[in-house]
Amino acid sequence: MMNIAIATPEIFLLISICIILLIDLFLRDDQRLISYILVQISVLITAFLLISTLHTNKQLGLNAMYVQDELGGFLKISILVLTSTAFVYIRKYLNDKNLWKTEFFLLVLFAVLGMMIMASANHLLLVYLGLELLSLALYTLVAFSRDDSRATEAAMKYFILGAIASGMLLYGISMLYGLTMGQLELQAIAAYIDTQAILENIPLLFTLVFIVGGIAFKFGAVPLHMWVPDVYQGAPTATTLFLGSVPKIAAFAMLIRVLSESLGLAQSGWAQLLLVIGLLSVIIGNLLAIAQFNLKRMLAYSAIAQMGFVLLGTMTGTLEGYSAGLFYTLTYALTAVGGFAILILLSHQGLEAETLDDLKGLNERSPWYAFIMLLFLFSMAGIPPMVGFYAKFSVIQALLQGGYLWAAIILVLMSVIGAFYYLRTIKMMYFDKPELDFTLKTTTLDFKLVLSTNGLLILILGLLPSSLMSLCTNALVTSLP
Amino acid sequence: MLDLPILSLLLWLPMLGGLVVLAVGNRLDPRQVALGITLLTFLISLLMLISFNLETAQMQFQEQSIWISSFKINYHLGVDGFSVPLIILNSFITILVVIAAWEVIRYQINQYLAAFLIMEGIVNGVFAALDAMLFYILFEGMLIPLFLIIGIWGGPQRVYATLKFFLYTFFGSVFLLISLVYLYQLGNSFAIADMQKLPLAMLPQTLIFLSFLLAFGVKVPMWPVHTWLPDAHVEAPTGGSVILAAITLKVGGYAFIRFALPIVPDAAAQLSSLVIFMSLTAIVYIGFVALVQQNMKKLIAYSSIAHMGFVTLALFIIYLLKPDDSRSAALALQGGMIQMISHGFISGALFLCIGVLYDRMHTRDIKAYGGVVNTMPYFAAFFVLFAMANTGLPGTSGFVGELFVILASFKANFWIASLAASALIIGSAYTLWLVKRVIFGTIQHPKVAQLRDLNQREFGLLTVLAVAVLLLGVWPAPLNHLMSVSIEQLLAHALQSKCGGNVVGECP
Description:
The structure holds 2 protein chains of 2 kinds.
Chain A: H1 8-25, H2 32-53, E1 59-61, E2 66-68, H3 70-97, H4 102-120, H5 124-142, H6 149-179, H7 186-194, H8 202-219, H9 227-234, H10 237-243, H11 246-262, H12 267-290, H13 295-315, H14 319-346, H15 362-365, H16 367-381, H17 387-401, H18 405-431, H19 445-463, H20 466-479
Antiparallel strand pairs in A: 1-2
Helix pairs in contact in A: 1-2, 1-4, 2-3, 2-4, 3-4, 3-10, 3-11, 3-14, 3-19, 3-20, 4-5, 4-11, 5-6, 6-8, 6-9, 7-11, 8-11, 8-12, 9-10, 9-13, 10-14, 11-14, 12-13, 12-18, 13-14, 13-17, 14-16, 14-17, 14-19, 14-20, 16-18, 16-19, 17-18, 17-19
Chain B: H1 6-24, H2 30-50, E1 60-68, E2 73-79, H3 83-100, H4 109-128, H5 132-141, H6 143-153, H7 158-187, H8 192-197, H9 202-219, H10 228-235, H11 238-263, H12 265-270, H13 272-291, H14 296-317, H15 326-361, H16 372-375, H17 377-391, H18 397-412, H19 414-438, H20 446-449, H21 456-474, H22 477-494
Antiparallel strand pairs in B: 1-2
Helix pairs in contact in B: 1-2, 1-4, 2-3, 2-4, 3-4, 3-11, 3-15, 4-5, 4-6, 4-11, 5-7, 6-7, 7-9, 7-10, 9-11, 10-14, 11-14, 11-15, 11-22, 13-14, 13-19, 14-15, 14-18, 14-19, 15-17, 15-18, 15-21, 15-22, 17-19, 17-21, 18-19, 18-21
């Protein structure tokens, strides 16, 4: 059963990438706006193609390797919308830094294509292929400013560690292939798991360790977090912005497809792994973030801690837990993309905004952007009424429902510790006088608009989180078995 | 009468007004806009008072709509006899804070006023929330404006003070969140009224009570988690100190009334001696600490802690009374509430007075003053009046609350009452000594000799507060009347076992 039609959005995206690549050859430097607009249009059309597939029944296609369901559609639309937002910010960065190459956008689109494949894969091989497409594009993006030795070093680290993680995942997949007598389709694996006594099947437990390891790397969770700070710091801020936000959604897609959809019945096996990984991420991420004075590194450790929350929510294996994880991932991605956009805004000719000192006195230089950043930071710290609070709240609620009281207590304690470094950043913006006497460069209207919307969304979603929450729950209810 | 959503107005008008003040920038005078909004809010709160029905303990002016359906969180507001006076106090004090900032705050005044307006809206919401999550969200949200107020407009050590304030209170309240989620999962509802009906065994009650004690005790603040308050007060700008002392401390006391007593009465009864011990320590020990302070603001801050000790004492002494002595229990709760309101006026007034001196001298060191009465006679009169009220002089509002609490304590235990009563002596000692060193005596410093007396604005501010303090002191009956039905209702919940015991606090 081929049913190619269910992959229409992906196919469209691939074709438009190729076409833009060709068109770009014939454009002069002063016509770069054209390729940028083409890129944005192709992202939006892909999103529209996806919206038309929503609310249809679950369909398999491409020899049951590919699936079209609400969850996939919801994740892919979120990925595309966030990418389109990120493009606005990235454009300003590339313009300011004289790094403009249309390839940057196209590489991002390849990464997006990989993520879309991950979100819709119904077969472990396809999950892996999507992951590799995403990773290869990201490695290149990290090394994008090739004369910068830190960027190339970061790319090298990322590449080597990423290769090891891919190897782990692939090893886990191959063991599963052996255990199930040659099955890699998600439902077939689920059928096999159904017949097993999970905790007594040692090869299966080993398999789980490898698969969870591969997924944890993508999340940047402890103990596979070593790459995160270096890559965040070394990469050009535009890359960090993309890499620190959108791929988290793809990682969540992989988590839910592999662990919940196919290995869901082995929850007793992987829950313990995720519990330990999640708690370690939250603890180590928050504690180490305190020691960071480089903003990008601080946000990297904060990302590690935040992803720990996602893993802990998902760990419970309940619908509430999955839904909490999904809500958390989406809102975090939205917050992170905006947070890095502020860094782009602050970076001045030739210099990246890197240390906390660069934020000093932002309230005097630009009260509006300081306010937006305040929203992002309070959201990350989980202070109501910002949306980040509801994310943490729903994870804690899922944990308590699963009976993990002590894990919830550790989480809230760590949020207090986490609050410290977010507050310290706010302190820099609001309580300190600016050190460097420079004014913010003028920004284009689209940048202003998108960033302001992005920031206000954090507040508005915090005041009215209900609809996004039920979207998350709905997508999961209709798609999970 | 009118079908206005009064409580929503009280919540949203100041908040949106705050945004307007932010937005007008320098085109309009942000002070006049802010003053208009606070006056309007105060009028609405008076409207609420007028149409408030005194005969029923039911929640009034209720507004309810679904907010977050997946967790059954409702936007549910309503007020009873406990909330109404506190909302009026809040709306009233915020006006004074706006006026007090008039010529004093120069740096980013629109942001300053906006922060206070948003704060006013949030606090009104806290006092009116009937949904536990709504309460929690506002309770936490309150930290944001205050954090900025202390941090941006505070003194030299402001960063330390404001971080300490934020982290301390945040730490206290995260456990509250866990307790509330736990209660939600038991009863499948976040409505406070439903939580009050849940039967609970002793162990969960104890744990929940401890989390409440931590969250609200930090806010009150109770000894030994009070150490953030003096720092925050010393560094905060005058308006920040006034709001902190007059309003936010009351949130802690109010939350005990709304959550701790009715939801976990058995644990409250069992641990009442612990809380009473903490309250007495606050009253006696912190009183002595206040005696040795060199900084006027710090002295008043410690005195606030001691006075709030009376409130927590009043709330928990009801468990040491004889079960049939509901009159004394009602007396204690009345005393606690009056003490809260009165302390709101008195501490607010004292901090304003210190602000008046600070604006002229730019120091709060007691040693730098002396003989102020010679140059500022009107100011000295006000200061002495408020100081007397602080010591609990009969005829002022400070007397009524403390008297009620001490009377009720006598019914429970002679020694508790006498320790509490000793506060009158210690309180007089530190307050009068402060007055002696600052106001009276001969002029020691040339700067004091050049002081100007109150201007019209300051005179007006202090007059209004003086009237409030005296009025409440000689005629507390309307306030009592406002609360009495609600107090009966609270006692019915708070003195009834929820774990199936015959007497509260004794679980089978």
